[in-house]
Structures are given as C-alpha cells and as structure tokens.
C-alpha cells in the first residue's frame, strides 16, 4: 500500500504555488516520490563528546515534472525565498483509510538545487527532478497527540 507525502508551497508573498495533485484533500500540492532529511550533531569519534551544535542537512525531494518546475528553477536562479513549505505524510490506518500522521513545516524556504533526471531502463513512467531546499526554521509534528518540536538552525543550542 502507498504511504504518500505531499508538499505545499507559498511564494515570497504568501500566494500558493499550485502543484499538479488533483486529489480533493490534497488539491494543488506536489506529490513527493522520494524524501530525505537529516539533522546531525558533531561528536568526538574517540570519546563521544559533543563538539559543536546541530547541523541541519538540506531536505532532498524527488518529484515529477509539472507546472511548478519552471517556478522552482526561477527560485534557484534568482535566489528567491519561499515564505512557507509544508510536507504532509500519510499512512494507512487499520480501517484501510489513509490519514495524515506527520508534518514538517518550514519557514523561509530556499531552493538550492534543481536537477532533472531519467531513471535507467524506463523504471519510471515520467521525467523526474531532484530538489534540495534549506530553511530558516522547521517544525516537526506528530499529529496524534500534537507532539511538536521547532528549531531555528541559526539559534545557539546545546553548548
């Protein structure tokens, strides 16, 4: 069964950047084919002692080419900052219904890479692109129980 993730974007003025998804509850979003992100903290390899503050890696996503593709190229080429980005993740409940269970909210999003690619041997039915994005602030939310953590990458922490 599918466990999809979708991205909603707002441009620098707060206007939605409309993706190609036409599902009623996700209309205008961008369906993600792949998603990767990490936060690390440097440690001394011998002693395990923390040697610095956390490092936010870029969020890397893969999506199909759509009407947002030229807008995302423009964002990279002109260094535009998107006001907000929200990634919503869904899972299948025991009842068979698909429900959002986790979301990531990013503020002041900067796209830093757009890289189109074709999968070998026609493994994908369409053209794909990899995007990397960074942000000034991020919130991770587990919707069941409303468990949230927010971080601003340039705030001092853990020293």
UniProtKB/TrEMBL annotation:
<dbReference type="InterPro" id="IPR008514">
    <property type="entry name" value="T6SS_Hcp"/>
</dbReference>
<dbReference type="Pfam" id="PF05638">
    <property type="entry name" value="T6SS_HCP"/>
</dbReference>
<protein>
    <submittedName>
        <fullName>Type VI secretion system tube protein Hcp</fullName>
    </submittedName>
</protein>
<dbReference type="InterPro" id="IPR036624">
    <property type="entry name" value="Hcp1-lik_sf"/>
</dbReference>
<dbReference type="InterPro" id="IPR052947">
    <property type="entry name" value="T6SS_Hcp1_domain"/>
</dbReference>
